[in-house]
Amino acid sequence: MLFADQVGIRSDQVTGRAWGAKGVTPVVRRTGNRFSVNVMSAISTRGRMHFMVFTETFDAKVMCRFLARLAGHFDRKVHLVVDRHSAHRSKAVRDWLADHKDRVELHFLPSSSPELNPDELVNADLKRSLPHAHQARNQAELAAETRRFFHRRQRQPHIVRGYFGARHVHYILDE
């Protein structure tokens, strides 16, 4: 069983902290360019993490591509818990699932309940962990920084398991 979510990272998002003299607002130098990347990730209670970085808008086509990649990593059926995003419930995804019902099954969280998805903690960790000193100057650099974060977390299963330790997701481990 995996929990999945998608997140967008923008070049102009505020990350980290800047220091300045008391009473003086610090100036943080950035490029004037605005660009973004998106990520779809899935985590398990055993500390496994799977992800896909992409630049297009998250839609049913991207979701099907992620499902196909995810199914390829397992030799048995994957149960994927997701929110009720329109792409997850789209006809294209339903058709893909019908053609691959022996490989992947979706389970939906209740509406408006992001706190029940431990993968939301991955998103928060990503936004908190993006490099503060080096700011990406273009979309390719932002995608590379994002991939580095996820590759690092894949090698740290104890941190991935820790996402399930949050009080609001204890329901997953309580059986």
Brief summary of the model shown:
The protein has 175 residues and is α/β, with parallel strands linked by helices.
What this model shows, in words?
- By secondary structure, this protein is of the alpha/beta class.
- It has a single domain, classed as Nucleotidyltransferase, domain 5, CATH 3.30.420.10.
- Helices cover 31% and strands 19% of the residues.
- It has 5 helices and 5 strands.
- The protein has helices at 60-72, 91-99, 119-129, 139-154, 157-162; strands at residues 2-10, 36-43, 49-54, 78-82, 104-108.
- The chain has a 5-stranded mixed beta sheet, with helices on both faces.
- The chain is globular and about 60 Å long.
Number of domains: 1
CATH superfamily: Ribonuclease H-like superfamily/Ribonuclease H
Query: SSE string, helix = H, strand = E?
Result: EEEHEHEHHH
Give average pLDDT, whole number: 89
* Low-pLDDT segments: none
Structural class: alpha/beta
Q: What is the CATH C-level name?
A: Alpha Beta
What distance lies between the first and last C-alpha atoms, to the nearest angstrom? 14 Å
Largest sheet: 5 strands, mixed
* Shape annotation: globular
Q: Determine Rg (CA atoms, Å).
A: 18 Å
Quaternary status = single chain
Strand content: 15-25%
Give the helix tally: 5
What's the layout of helices and strands?
Layout: E1 2-10, E2 36-43, E3 49-54, H1 60-72, E4 78-82, H2 91-99, E5 104-108, H3 119-129, H4 139-154, H5 157-162
Parallel strand pairs: 1-4, 4-5
Antiparallel strand pairs: 1-2, 2-3
